[in-house]
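Appendix B. Chain record.
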Amino acid sequence: MIIKSYFKTLLIGVVLMLSSNLQSQVLVNSIKELVPYLDDDNVHVKMAPGVYNITAEDVKKGMYPKESNIKRICKVLLLFEGNNSTYDFTGVTINVETAVFRSFGNFRVNEIQILGNNNVLKNLTLVDVGSVHDGPTVGALNLCMDGRENRIEGFHVTAKGSFPYGYGDAFGKGGNSVINHQKHSACLIRGESNHLKNSTFIHRSYGHCIFMQAANNPLIEGCYVEGEVRKTDDMLAEEGTGSPADKVGFKTVWGYKLPKGYMMSTGEAGIRAYNAGETYIDGEFFRRGTSNPTVINCTVKYMRTGVTIAHATGKKYVENCTAMGCENGFSLGSGEVVGCRADVTHGPAYSSTYSSDVAYNADITIISSKEPYCNGSGSVAYIGGSKHKITLRGSNQGVEHGLKIKVGGDKNNIRLLQGNLPNQNNFKGWDFEINNLTNFPLFLSEKSSGVKGQSLGLISDLGNQNKVKK
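C-alpha cells predicted for this chain:
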C-alpha cells in the first residue's frame, strides 16, 4: 500500500507538471495579444504565422510606449523582460515603418530588446519598410540583447533607414562630423553569455551590423551579414547634384577631399567589439568593456570590416569565418583566427589595429572573387606589432594588380592619408613569424625587424635582422 501510494503521488506530480507546461504554451494572433506575455516568466509563446505591421500611426495611438529600464532614454517597441521563456515566430514577418524611428520624438528607438534572462527568441523575419535615407531622430537599433544567457536564433533582419546613406564613414561617424549623422545599427549584444545564432542580416543603413558593448562571453555563431559597397569615384560623380556630399564639397572628416580609387562600405563593421558600454543584468546596471568574444561559422560581405574585435579583452576567438568584399577582413589585436577566409578585392584580408598588437595567431586562406578589384591600399595584409604567428594561403588572384603583404610602414588606407591619424599608421613590426604560402610579394618595410618564416612570393627586405626564407 505504501508503494502504491508513492507511485500515485508521483504520477499526480508528473501530470500536474505536464499540465503546467501545456498551460504555458500560448498561441497569439496579433502583436497586441503578444505584448502582455513579454514580461512573463516560464512561458512558451507561439505567434500565428503571418505578416504584422508596426506603423507611426500605431505609435500615435499609444500602442508602443515601452521604455528600456536602462536610463530611460530609449523607446522599445517589443521589450522582453521575463525569464526562462521561449517565443516562437516561425512563419512570422513583422514590418516596421522607418517613419516609426521619428515618431517618438527625441529618443533612440529599439525595435526588440531583451532585459530578462534565459530567454529564446527564434525564427522571426524583421523588416524595416521605407527608404534607406529615412534617418531616425536620434538613433535606431533592430535588436538589443541585455540580461544573461539569452539566445536569438534563426532571425532574418533587413535594416534600413539612416542619414546620410551611401558614403560610409567618409563624412563622419557622429561627433565632429562634416555631415550630421543619424545612425542605425542592426544588432547590439550586451549582457552576460548571450548568444546570436544562425541569423541573417541584410544591412542597408549607416551603422554597425552586429556589435558588442559591455558583453561578457558573447557568442556569435552561424550568422550571415550582407551590406553594400560603393566606389569613391561614384561618390565624386555626384558633383553638381546637390547631394549631401556635394553640399560639403566632398571634404571628408579626415581633412581632405575624398580621394578616387577606393571602395567603401555604406555601412560600418560587420562584427565589432567595443571596450566600453553599459548593460542591464538581474536588475543591476553595469558599465564595462567587452570580454571573451567568440565568433564562429559566420560570413560577412560588403562591410567596412569583417570581424574586428581588437578592442575586446580576454580570450578572442574566431573560427571558420569568411569576409568577402569588405574593406578589411579580420582585426583582433591579439587572439586566434582559425581556418578563416577572405578575398582582397577591396582591401586587406587582415590588418593590425595598433602597433601594440601582440600574439595575433591567424591562419587565413585568400579566396578568389568575381568582383572587379578596387583595393586602393594595395594590401593583401598589413602586419604590425609582435609575437604573432600568421599563415596566409590560397588563391593568388590579385597578384597581377600589384597587391602585396606589408609588414610595417604606410598602410595607404583611405582614412590615413596626408598624415591623418598617425597613431593608426606606420607601425613597427617585429619578432614574429609569417608563412606566406601564396605568390603575393612580401614587403618588409624599414620598420620591420626580427621577422622570420617563409614566403613563396618575392621578398623585399628593407628592415633589420629579418630571416624570412624564399
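Further analysis of this model is presented in Appendix C.
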